[in-house]
Amino acid sequence: MSINRVNITGNLTRDPELRVTGGGTQVLSFGVAVNDRRRNSQTGEWEDYPNFVDCTMFGTRAEAVSRFLAKGNKVAIEGKLRYSSWEKDGQRRSKLEVIVDEIEFMSQRQGGSAPAAAPAPAPLPAPAAVPPAVDLYDEDIPF
Asked: Which of 10, 14, 82, 126 is the most buried (most CB within 10 A)?
């Protein structure tokens, strides 16, 4: 048995790019920087080493999410790893990316205006008076 799940938290390295495939599927691509802390063997100090992770999201949620993301935003992502390889200019290339299943915004979009919050729904009217209960076993009621 194998498990292909990944959880990362980091900052977007670039503005997301939304495109549509020939079949009409929306594809959102963005990068996330995730830091790894290591001790420098020469100085003994702890240092951050960034890992740059390509992320891809599909479907109608991709379009909705794209409106709320911008470079520098902090996000938490849950998804699965996907390996891709191809040939370009005679060279073999490959990459490992995260296919996003869930995303949580951990910071507000900077600079831009976020969509206005939906107004609170109007309160429901009070229920009408409830009629008294009827005894279904009363012998005077025909069935």
From this structure: 10
